[in-house]
Design goal:
The chain is α/β, with parallel strands linked by helices. About 35% of the residues lie in helices and about 15% in strands. It has five helices and seven strands. A seven-stranded parallel sheet has the order 3-2-1-4-5-6-7, with helices on both faces. Helix 1 links the parallel strand 1 and strand 2. It is globular and about 50 Å long. NADP nicotinamide-adenine-dinucleotide phosphate binds next to helix 1.
């Protein structure tokens, strides 16, 4: 990565995930950051990646987020914060809704807690860690299905709506951040369809040749972050650099 000064750390929230883990590996291999802080609900070990520091975070718990930010702050200013956590289905049996008949308040609130409120609270506690001068980026993994204009298929109510709301959080953060830290950018990222636990039950519908490995997605997302122009702040960008419609 060439756009960042080499004097700050990178932070990945959701490092235990398919894309999050690949991002940690790619960031470590890039040699761009003083350290890579890998945060997840269970502490992970990165035996092959030098300079990776593991820590704990539960984005459903603000005190855990605040503690993780204090921990990350010990590594000095951050140049890059990537939020790679998210939920589409989970072990409690939550599945994306095929029909409005399947809507369930608790399941909807869970999707919003993890996909919208969690990243917003991560921003609350981690934006103050961004370097005060020179380029820095806060990016949250969103999804193309969170685009209202792009919604032609329907279904997946909670996931779509929680990502659309995340996109609004990102844009609103970007406006405030521009006033406080003009060199800092805040964006959403769409990784493409990636072979992870999140997409696995739905991969049957993915056209051949369009399912990315986590490693490929991580490389693409970091290339997109590296190429962001200042006026990109507040937008959502796909793995190929294309802006995703609101
Ligand atoms: N895969 C795709 O095709 C695809 C497409 C579009 C967008 N995305 C987005 O990309 C992001 C990463 O997805 P993925 O495919 O890598 O999925 P994944 O492998 O299922 O990873 C999800 C991550 O979110 C973490 N997480 C969930 N709840 C959490 C909580 N309360 N606190 C902290 N971490 C929590 C998980 O932690 P645990 O290990 O502790 O559960 C895991 O690290 C998500 O935002 C997803 O919506 C993915």
């Amino acid at each position: 990565m060439t756009s960042f000064e080499r004097d700050g750390c990178a932070i990945v929230v959701g490092a235990s995930g398919g894309i999050g883990g690949a991002l940690v590996g790619a960031l470590s291999a890039s040699g761009t950051f003083t350290s890579v802080i890998a945060l997840s609900r269970r502490r992970a070990v990165w035996p092959h990646d030098e300079g990776v520091v593991s820590g704990l975070i539960d984005i459903a718990d603000e005190e855990s987020i605040a503690a993780a930010a204090r921990f990350a702050g010990e590594s000095g200013p951050a140049r890059l914060v990537l939020v790679a956590s998210g939920v589409l289905h989970d072990s409690t049996g939550q599945q994306p809704e095929k029909s409005y008949r399947a809507l369930d308040a608790d399941a909807m609130l869970h999707a919003f807690r993890i996909n919208t409120v969690g990243p917003a609270l991560v921003a609350k506690h981690f934006l103050p860690l961004l370097a005060r001068r020179g380029r820095s980026v806060f990016a949250a993994l969103s999804a193309r299905v969170g685009s209202i204009g792009d919604n032609r298929l329907g279904g997946w109510y909670s996931y779509r709506a929680s990502k659309a709301a995340l996109n609004m959080i990102v844009r609103t953060l970007a406006i405030e951040l521009a006033r406080q830290n003009p060199d800092a950018l805040c964006v959403g990222l769409h990784p493409g369809t990636v072979d992870t636990a999140l997409s696995r039950p739905f991969q049957g519908a993915v056209p051949a040749g369009t399912l990315f490995s986590p490693g490929f997605a991580a490389q693409r997302l970091l290339a997109v972050v590296d190429a962001l122009a200042p006026e990109s702040t507040g937008g959502v960008f796909a793995w190929d650099g294309e802006r995703v419609a609101a």
